[in-house]
Design goal:
Distance between the termini of chain B: 39 Å
Shape of chain A: globular
Shape of chain B: globular
Number of helices of chain A: 11
Strand order of the largest sheet of chain B: 6-7-8-3-9-10
Helix content of chain B: 25-40%
Strand content of chain B: 15-25%
Largest sheet of chain B: 6 strands, mixed
Number of strands of chain B: 10
Bound molecules: adenosine-5'-triphosphate, magnesium ion
Radius of gyration of chain A: 19 Å
Structural class of chain B: alpha/beta
Order of helices and strands of chain B: EEEHEEHEHHHHEHEHEEHH
Structural class of chain A: alpha/beta
Largest interface: A-B, 66 and 63 residues
Radius of gyration of chain B: 18 Å
Strand content of chain A: 15-25%
Number of helices of chain B: 10
Distance between the termini of chain A: 27 Å
Oligomer: heterodimer
Largest sheet of chain A: 6 strands, mixed
């Protein structure tokens, strides 16, 4: 097997705040090859922080440490900013959790996609090629009227359109590793399936590595190869996606139990009783 | 309790309207769901009700009376909204405590630290979060602050735009149970947008399926649960959701 695209060992991230430190990630290890890994976990468990650490996009208040943190053959902890700028977008792309607020508010979304495309296309494509690529990408993410949408500013598009614009923009860079942070949470099921099959096809055709952060257990089970379950800054369980129904950790089991179902209404949904011991045991 | 009549919203003169004549009424203590394709106009309906879309036509009625074009304090003390993008609805340079106290102050209600702490606790956040800024929170924590801020003024009607989309299903269950409990205890009325038909089925008595700015079909939740929808698009949406959500509880 070839070297993994991402390799993290004992990754920790601590934020300094006015009221003292926050340990957001506490010893996370995993390897990502040419595969789809899902990360599921409690709100606030450190999923987005892991994604940003791989890109080295954390704020200055963050202290990142690891025994190893290698992304696309680059030592993320040692590389200077120039090297990081070269791999960000082109070799590793991040679809952010809050797409509409990650886009530039004063530039039409189509121009932002075109700009990314030009920046990362090998032959430095011209304006027309970039525009055509932009419209094609928007169509690929199932935007029905790409000409209109390309001209809109971020505040003029819907939540789900924002997610798809963000996906198109990250794909425009043609990365080898894709970190997708809740990329389809604002999409209806039909469009979501179409966008997922687009990602699936890219992973298969171009041999991408995909890190898919999601709260959607159905999605992760059907779409990913493996799943990491995070709780309070740690990976508490790692499973084959197809085996998520047989999870052993009580947090994962509790998640499965609290899913509402279309055909089986319940007055009150079961909730978790969080055991303080879950924070410590890995 | 709250109703819209022939709501039309047009953002540009040339194109098709974003909302093309939508009407519905929600009784007190009921929950009405809005579902439909991404971009079909759901958020625009909610924003228009909240008075955030200039130049819509049609009526918004509260207790049968049209609300003023410029929504006043009285309106916001009774109707609050949880936005689809919590990041955008929070002030970037104010602490969470300041943002939770603000609606109270605006409406001339008395606030105080205890009330802010309680609001955080009801959405499962430690009171220590009061000192954080929005960028110092995770996506789901921000979404819960937005819910806490809407609830803190004790409104009668909540407009909820994908209120649990950033939450893991265990925290989602807690928030949905909280909403159910408030509805039972205080008779709150909800207008709920969600892409998750299981959430809609769990929360709503009635729902409408939208496409391209129009309501295609209105359904009792029993018909959703039984799968007896009529419009081909609703049937497609339901079939896709069912195929998607095969997962059963452990
Ligand atoms: N800049 C920051 N300063 C202080 N604490 C932070 C900062 N950013 C994140 N945190 C905290 O770190 C923890 C992990 O946050 P992160 O955003 O990684 O969570 P997450 O797993 O992505 O959650 P969600 O599913 O809700 O998006 C949270 O408790 C959050 O409050
Ligand atoms: N300020 C605006 N200016 C121009 N067009 C707008 C504006 N706000 C919304 N629109 C357009 O109105 C349509 C409906 O948007 P809306 O946000 O209501 O969709 P939605 O049903 O909430 O979608 P989603 O499920 O993706 O959130 C979209 O085509 C969008 O581009
Ligand atoms: Mg996150
Ligand atoms: Mg919306």
């Amino acid at each position: 097997m070839s070297a993994p695209l991402v390799s993290a060992r004992n990754l920790t991230v601590r934020f300094a705040t006015q009221k003292g430190p926050v340990d957001a990630v506490r010893g996370v290890s995993f390897d990502l090859g040419r595969e789809k890994i899902g990360i599921v976990g409690e709100s606030g468990s450190g999923k987005s922080t892991v994604g940003r650490a791989l890109m080295r996009l954390l704020p200055r208040s963050a202290t990142v440490a690891a025994d190893r943190l290698v992304v696309c053959d680059t030592d993320v902890l040692a590389a200077d900013e120039k090297i990081m700028r070269r791999i960000r977008g082109r070799r590793i792309g991040l679809i952010m959790q809050d797409p509409k607020y990650s886009l530039n508010p004063v530039v039409p979304v189509g121009l932002q996609i075109a700009e990314t495309f030009r920046l990362h296309s090998p032959a430095h494509a011209g304006a027309r090629a970039a525009r055509e690529a932009t419209l094609a990408l928007l169509r690929q993410v199932r935007i029905h009227d790409p000409e209109r949408v390309a001209g809109l500013y971020p505040h003029q598009i819907s939540g789900g359109m924002g997610q798809r614009v963000m996906i198109a923009m990250v794909l425009a860079g043609g990365p080898e590793v894709l970190i997708a942070d809740e990329p389809t949470s604002a999409l209806d099921v039909t469009v979501r399936m179409e966008v997922l099959s687009l990602l699936d096809e890219l992973v298969a055709r171009k041999g991408l590595g995909l890190l898919f952060i999601s709260h959607d257990l159905n999605l992760v089970r059907r779409f990913c190869d493996r799943v990491l379950i995070m709780y309070a800054g740690r990976v508490v369980e790692a499973l084959k996606a197809s085996e998520i129904d047989h999870a052993k950790h009580p947090y994962t089991q509790g998640l499965l139990a609290s899913l509402p179902l279309i055909r089986q209404p319940r007055e009150i949904l079961p909730t978790l009783v969080r055991d303080p011991a879950w924070r410590e045991s890995a | 309790m709250i109703a819209v009549r022939d709501l039309v919203v047009r953002f540009d003169r040339k194109g098709a309207p974003a909302v093309a004549g939508v009407s519905f009424a929600i009784e007190k203590g009921e929950t009405f769901g809005l579902v439909g394709e991404s971009g079909c106009g759901k958020s625009t309906v909610l924003r228009a009700i909240a008075g955030l879309v200039p130049g819509h036509s049609g009526d918004v009625l509260l207790d049968g009376r049209p609300v003023p074009a410029r929504r006043d304090r009285a309106f916001y003390s009774r109707v609050q909204m949880v936005f689809q993008d919590p990041y955008g609805s929070l002030h970037p340079r104010q602490t969470i405590a300041a943002q939770l106290a603000e609606p109270l102050r605006n409406l001339g209600l008395n606030g105080g630290p205890a009330r802010v702490d309680r609001a955080l606790e009801t959405v499962g956040l430690d009171p220590a979060f009061r000192w954080r800024f929005p960028h110092e929170l995770s996506g789901g924590q921000r979404q819960r602050v937005a819910i806490a801020r809407a609830l803190i003024v004790e409104p009668e009607v909540l407009l909820l735009d994908e209120p649990t989309s950033a939450l893991d299903v265990s925290v989602q269950a807690e928030i949905l149970n909280l909403l159910t409990e408030l509805r039972r205890r205080r008779g709150l009325t909800y207008l709920l947008v969600s892409h998750d038909l299981a959430v809609i089925s769990h929360m709503c008595g009635e729902l409408a399926v939208m496409q391209r700015g129009r309501i295609l079909e209105r359904l009792d939740v029993e018909r959703l649960r039984a799968g007896t929808v009529e419009h081909p698009y609703s049937a497609e949406l339901l079939a896709a959701s069912e195929a998607y959500g095969e997962l059963r509880p452990a």
